[in-house]
User: Fold these one by one.
Assistant:
Number 1:
Amino acid sequence: MNFFHYIGQYLLMVKGMFSRPENSKMYWKEFMRQCSDIGIGSLGIVTIISVFIGAVSTIQTAYQLVSPLIPRSTIAQIVRDTVILEFAPTLVCIVLAGVVGSKIASELGNMRVSEQIDALEIMGINSKAYLIRPKIVAALVVIPLLVVIAMVLGIRGGRYAGGMANIISDYAYDKGLLQNFVPYNVIFALIKSYVFAFIIASISAYFGYFVKGGALEIGKASTKAVVISCILILFGDYVLSALLL
Amino acid sequence: MIEVRNIKKAFGGKTVIEDVSAVMKTGQCNLIIGASGSGKTVLMKCIVGLFEPDSGEILYNGKSFTAMKHEERTEVRKEIGMLFQGGALFDSLTVEQNVMFPLNMFTKWNQKQKSDRVNEVLARVNLVDTNKKFPAELSGGMKKRVGIARAIVMNPKYLFCDEPNSGLDPQTSLVIDKLIREITTEYNITTVVNTHDMNSVMEIGDYILYLYQGKKEWEGNNKEIIFTKNKLLNDFIFASDFLHDAKEMRMLEERGKVPPGLDLEGQNPQ
Ligand SMILES: Nc1ncnc2c1ncn2[C@@H]1O[C@H](COP(=O)(O)OP(=O)(O)OP(=O)(O)O)[C@@H](O)[C@H]1O
Ligand SMILES: [Mg+2]
């Protein structure tokens, strides 16, 4: 019963987001602000994570591939595919659920509790359209970009780690990267990142927008937003892999 | 004109507003008074549609607001200015940007026109040199005044103020009361003010609705309130001995029966 209430409320929120902007310029400004908040705000953490993920995958793959019959370049191939298929989209989005999701939920929660959302409504502004839509659209634009950056940096990180630990030469690594490359993997990763971006932004917005109570509830709402987003990302990851691979 | 007809509102089985009706005329200051927790804020939010009343009807200029669709309500709301009890300023914007927000959203004015208008309303609420400050850097009373400035910047037809002068010093409080009075008569708008400030009641109370535990206990104006025999209202509004004495004086004054020997001005020790 309760579960359906939440789903209904969530769907109504998404539906309520679509209305003609009262002033396109203001909506554009809000969209740009969100892009820079989400993009610039998480670029650092995404860089660190992806470089290390790539590095660790290289070392661990090499550790597992002990047979001398397998050429070293295979390591690069495996690192490439795991980074593109799983680590860059899923892991980065899980981290972004924490960074971006909690930010969205607490920003909206604070606006709800301090009546700023009511103030917008009283001015005759559709607060869902003005506050939530730019966040979701910004997430849809920026998060896939971050995922692409994470792919590149992850593969780069693997190359550095392979060189530094004398596991694989840069030449062999680069050669491995081009072996059996399936462009569809990148498309699959991008599809995943669009879905995850929507999950992160809309779920966090939902929990923030409908906060009831005070400062304590804002904290609870942003925790819930992160937990539910992560669960849905993993679930979505499974469903998409089953359907599209 | 705003008509409130038999509004009821309950939260989870607890009745907060019980069968309240009122007629709030244009060009006058309509006050909702009552103790803390009596339901003033809830009633005001029902009137502007932030809460849906459980039953009853709200009419703006004869049109049922309650029956309106979302889009029609939006049109009415563009003519509403509201000050929230906590100010409800946008944290991420400066004072200037807060007040300018409705102008940015709904007008095609150029930057100069907009900042002139912003400075004009900020001056009216006695705020200068705060344009670049953020709400977090303001005192409670300053936030209130920025909230008022934002509420009036679009020249609304309906002005709602939830406790405009709680947290203000008596002098600023008077300035705000005067301002509310001025814009109400100047632009002939319908003003609704929640307050428990005795001074405001006397200064601007053209119509006063006294809420007691969610029910309308009394209604009248600031002349009538002095002579009221209603025990609850008397206890509420003239709570202190000082106010009680002031009331007695005012009664005498109103009746034109000030005793000859007693010079009211002379009571002032200066
Ligand atoms: N959103 C809400 N959910 C549940 N109960 C509420 C809600 N808002 C207000 N109430 C209850 O309604 C009653 C009236 O509250 P209201 O805020 O209208 O009082 P008030 O007259 O404005 O008081 P004050 O002068 O302190 O602002 C209180 O008992 C409060 O607990
Ligand atoms: Mg109140």
Number 2:
Amino acid sequence: MRGGYNVPVAGAPLPEIRELPAPDRLYLPLASRRLDFGDVRVEEGQRVARGEVLAVDPEHFSIPLLAPYGGIVRLSEVEGHIVLDELDTTAGDRAAAGSTGAVAERLLALGAWQYLSDARTGDAADPAGRPSATIVSTLRLEPFLAGGEAQLDGALERLARGLEHVRGMAPEAPLYVVVPNADAPLAAELRKAVSACSGAHVVSVPMRFPFDDPALLARYLKLPAGPDTTVWAIPVEGVLAVEAALTDGRPCTERIVSFAGPAVTEPTHFRLVPGHPVADILAERLCREPARVINGGLLTGVVLSPEQRGVDSECTGLTVVGEPTRQTLLAFARPGISRRSYNRSFVGTLRTDMSMRYRAGLSGEVRPCIACGQCADVCPAGILPQVIHRHLYADRLEEAQRTRVDLCVGCGLCSFVCPSKIDLRTELLDAKRVLREEEEALRAEAEAEAARAAEAKAAEAEETQAGEVTV
Amino acid sequence: MKIVRDLLDRVEPLFREGGRFRLFRPIYAAGAAILLSPLDRTRAAPHVRDPLDVKRYMSLVIIALLPCMAASVYFFGLRVLAMVLVSYAAGGAVEVLFAIVRKDDVNEGFLVTGLLFPLVLPPSTPFWMVAVGVVFGVLVGKELFGGTGRNLFNPALVGRVFLALAYPRAMSSSWGIPGSGLFGHVTQFSVDAVSGATPLAAAKSGGLVPLWDLFFGSVSGSAGETSAAAVLLGGAFLLLVGVASWRTVAATLGAFAVMTFALHGGSPMMTLWHLLAGGILFGAFFMATDPVSSPLTKAGRWSYGIIIGVAAALIRNLTGYVEGVMFAILLGNVFAPILDEIFVTARVRRLREEG
Ligand code: SF4
Ligand code: SF4
């Protein structure tokens, strides 16, 4: 694998996992990164049991939003949320609906399907589809999302069982399990557990961001690509969710979420359920300074909207980083003892173990590209972001397509290292989206055309037939 | 720091819309941004950014040029500093003018051009000529292409070649006698000019300057180029901080050495002599590595360096010209987009095979 970079940022969470006191109410957002639960299935004031379907995403195979606890539904209280009141947090009452039916149906009903995605596009996996391979990644390398170490806390046995289930879901497809190639005891244990699983190929990958990206892994493993082949990707918590669903028929509602970043005083992980009030989490653990709360990681996350009141059902971490507040005199000419850069241009780069307290600033001004080439050096996809940037700047979308903007995995490292502070990631992802939409439109048109032609043919055949009859 | 902030806040209204100096807002903005780091926030992911910015990138090049500056002042007197000031003033005026017209920021790249340019001139170049050269270089070499980042050629080289073609006598016949001793010519403003005897010119008529003088730099030549030691010191720094591409440097010097070795019948001494003489070291470390006018890909940079090295050796040894480094680098600049086309296409094809 090529490129990649571990941003030396301070504020990593300890591997420990803390329990939070149960909240009084849950605020379940109706949208998360990929999913939009537009089809609400409950009524105002209805009492729901734990694991009951509150809403589904009609665009994505009706992936459901489950009630993490029992409670009374309040629909109109907070815009864009389902509020659960008078919570009943006792475990035990299971959703009976999930325990029968085909595997995919059971996983859907029990909230485990949302973890399965198409490795190349990142979209939700099609329950009716058959993968040509399955990738399970125990890594999550973006600072500071909850990765394998936290997710697997004491659950290695369940992981092994889960892998058997995952294998059973697509027995003909090879199963690749990605583990860190580090010397840490956990990595060794993990390798052992995985090797015990029959038919799983162990893939060791260096712990460098973003080598955990499913699209990169699929390319690295040279898995077949094409419009008719899909590769499934499942993160490690997804395997555990599959295990819970298929072994015990339990709905998967708990999440391990990191709460970390340079502006968090005690970075840690929390075990919580979706809908947990964000305010409760943020309340005590912030430094006193203007800060930005990010839903997701530092490099690819999005700013948590002030309207979002609860943790969403796809969240793997909240990251808090201070806004830039202090100006420095002649900053560019200082030796930079406490600063580290990708290209060794600060003295601090010599202190390899030092991490930096980054802030959410550009640390510089936007300038035309100076062709330094750092973006291409760091890009894990092997494309040339500066070349694509040049094409996009001149509105040459076809050229961007020719130079493979579609391979960009959106890791954000190019924007991170660019001394000219160009928003390369945003530009490339936008272009990639436009091209994909165009392609889909073309395909839909071609399909419609084919359907029309077939119809016309059928009509013609009918007509001739009818003609024959009259003759 | 507080004082600086207050001061800036006090003068800022003058440059605002309706203020007396509103036209010169780019000057204020550039000055303010140089003094105090800006507070611009990231608007999209990634939310944090590497601390390296273009200002620091360029200031590292300037720091790397300091040994050459010091050496040139030692050998050729304080006049060199005055040439730098003239170059900055004249080139800066063009830069600011274009920033005003374009309603854009003043670009830091000019700070490097403005310093590189006087260092490749004979130390006795008249001030007006320095000004004409740098204005031509910035105007034609950069602004006409659309500003920093879009220029095909290294602007300092464009200015230098323009002077060489427009005023060939002044650019090749009068060189200063280098100083020596503890203080060299540091205490003097300018040095006596002699006619026609750089080491390379002398070598054409058979006289070889000792190697040590070339290394130390006590020979006549362009202001910043004579001291190989100073160039190597600054160049090593540039490679160390990762600002210059070591591939370009290695390819240029390597190809130049191999070519010279071949042309001089396999003499290692002559090869070393030619590496230290003239502007090849300075050109390889400071001119050829200008990223904007170099190719983008690694393979492209190797090829580009080889083109420059070979061309420089050929011009120097086989033509009537005494020195060919600047032409060789301009030639490399011409080839850069072609090399990009070749190697980017190759890269894209490889990506397609990978799937
Ligand atoms: S181009 Fe895409 S894949 Fe490459 S570094 Fe940028 S965001 Fe990451
Ligand atoms: S990192 Fe930025 S300045 Fe450097 S080549 Fe890439 S886009 Fe250009």
